[in-house]
Amino acid sequence: MKSRLLHAFVCAALVGVSFLAHAQGVYPSQPVRLIVPFAPGGSTDVLARAVADGLRKELGQSVVVENRAGAGGLIGTEAVARAEPDGYTLGMATVSTMAVNPLLYGTARVDPAKQLTAVGSVANVPVVWMVNPAFPATDFAQFLAELRGHPGKYSFGSPGVGSLGHLNLAAMNADLQVEVLHVPYRGMGPALTAAVGGEVQVQQDQYASAQSLIKAGKLRPIAVAAPARLPGLPQLPTLAELGYPQLNALGQTWFGLVAPAGTPDAVVRRLNDAVRRALAEPALVQRLATLGAEPDTGTPQEFTQRIAQTLAANRKIIETAAIKLDE
């Protein structure tokens, strides 16, 4: 009797192992959910939908984009962290969600290092430094001279206290040795409106959303944070060219994919491979280019390292500028 029971147990165990191996081998066998921690229509959402289309072709499954906005990206990021680590829930990771929120809100709600697994980077989006057309400068040298000659005279509009724009301003003030005042708004839209109207004189924004204002002459570009000059603005130098490589690196907005911690390594590798293949397709590359985004792929380990490096850089900025959410 014991022998038969043992035999039955072993057979059942082997069947279970075989089923699990088969299930892992055919991943994905059902639709994948991609959570965007911001509202529809923004740059993160638009980029996520472009990437989702590419992943559908590579994975052979639907990739459904789900917007879970709120609390500066915390709500959507929490949803990813709490999901089953089976590869069927992914999240769009941004500099804000991975390398700003943990520093300002703490890690009580989401600790990216412990609750999320890096799948891979997706794209870089350049950020353009701009001024109101009435600002007395047409190039970076004049811009710098004007700011240094009139400390505290000019102001900068950000999407809010603790936003990337706020951190970039703090870094700009420190690295350029200038004093530009911070004016927080409730979102990037109102901040851009204030810059166009002259309520603030200095502005930074992603090229994707700023290019229409630049083409219309409503804002004047001064420099760009990007790996290379932009095809649409070939005359505009990068901050690295101008001698500020750190500002150039900090100013670039990166995006990537994450999964819940504990997602099997084989699944993460499968997803990473799918992302890399999707972003090598000319049609998707061109689609990202219309957003001002450049594909940026790498291994999960490389993305993990980039997150850590950005966290360290942002921690230094926040501590030096004493940035707090209750400002």
UniProtKB/TrEMBL annotation:
Organism superkingdom: Bacteria
Signal sequence region: 1-23
Entry-linked InterPro entries: BUG, Bug_dom1
The UniProt record lists the keyword Methyltransferase: no
Keywords: Signal
Gene3D superfamilies per record: Bordetella uptake gene, domain 1 (3.40.190.150), Periplasmic binding protein-like II (3.40.190.10)
Keyword Signal among record annotations: yes
PANTHER family (alphabetical): BLR1237 PROTEIN, TRICARBOXYLATE-BINDING PROTEIN
Family: Belongs to the UPF0065 (bug) family.
Stated name of the protein: ABC transporter substrate-binding protein
Organism: Achromobacter dolens
Lineage, highest ranks first: Bacteria, Pseudomonadati, Pseudomonadota, Betaproteobacteria, Burkholderiales
